């Protein structure tokens, strides 16, 4: 319809703006990822090969209780389809732990799906009841201690997944958008790559607020370092 734009249309128009060096989608629902959107990512250099796709839960029972309109297998199928077309894409996500009715088996399904997805980063939110919401009226709420324990377990898994993803990038080149402030601990320049990996490297202040090519060298659980050229 005239005057109606789909997400791929908007992304395409934005990517054609003159003077725009980089375009990153901050968050997109799994049901919004279509073949033409994926093709835009593949064929448009300005678009970062990074997608933040909220998961919330990796268990179909909990997804239904959350009123999410997809299944765990549909979610994974989309990610695998993207990987088949895109070189080392970066996937980040949001997960809620301790949603009402979540039992150990449900939580383990979430852990397993996160492992299979190979997320580069997971934002973990412990469920807390919000007055007036359908979830708040559910009777089978998780115990606070259980929620804390599951959050800690997923955090540990998320760190390992992030490290594994970053190791794939060693000796490759990244386009880093250099931040205005140096890293406070090392005094090195720092910034995020097109794959949403923060990289530290040595360089002059004149590179701040610009995009530079950095060769990724050392990867550790808490940092990634690189060098110019």
TrEMBL record:
It holds the Pfam family Radical_SAM. It comes from the Bacteria. GO terms for cellular component: cytosol. One of its GO terms (molecular function) is 4 iron, 4 sulfur cluster binding. Residues 1-164 form the Radical SAM core domain. This is Radical SAM core domain-containing protein. It comes from Candidatus Brocadia fulgida.
């Amino acid at each position: 319809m005239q005057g109606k734009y789909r997400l791929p249309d908007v992304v395409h128009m934005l990517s054609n703006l003159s003077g725009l060096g980089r375009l990153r989608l901050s968050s997109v629902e799994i049901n919004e990822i279509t073949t033409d959107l994926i093709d835009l990512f593949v064929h448009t250099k300005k678009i970062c090969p990074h997608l933040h796709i909220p998961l919330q839960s990796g268990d179909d029972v909990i997804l239904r209780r959350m009123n999410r309109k997809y299944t765990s297998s549909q979610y994974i199928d989309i990610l695998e389809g993207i990987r088949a077309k895109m070189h080392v894409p970066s996937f980040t996500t949001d997960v809620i732990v301790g949603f009402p009715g979540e039992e150990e088996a449900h939580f383990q399904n979430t852990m397993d799906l996160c492992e299979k997805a190979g997320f580069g980063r997971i934002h973990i939110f412990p469920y807390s009841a919000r007055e007036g919401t359908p979830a708040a009226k559910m009777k089978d709420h998780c115990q606070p201690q259980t929620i804390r324990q599951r959050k800690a377990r997923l955090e540990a898994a998320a760190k390992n997944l992030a490290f594994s993803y970053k190791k794939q990038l060693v000796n490759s080149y990244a386009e880093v958008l250099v931040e205005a402030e140096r890293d406070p601990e090392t005094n090195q320049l720092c910034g995020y790559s097109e794959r949403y990996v923060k990289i530290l490297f040595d360089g002059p202040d004149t590179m701040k607020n610009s995009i530079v090519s950095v060769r990724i060298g050392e990867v550790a659980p808490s940092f990634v370092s690189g060098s110019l050229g």
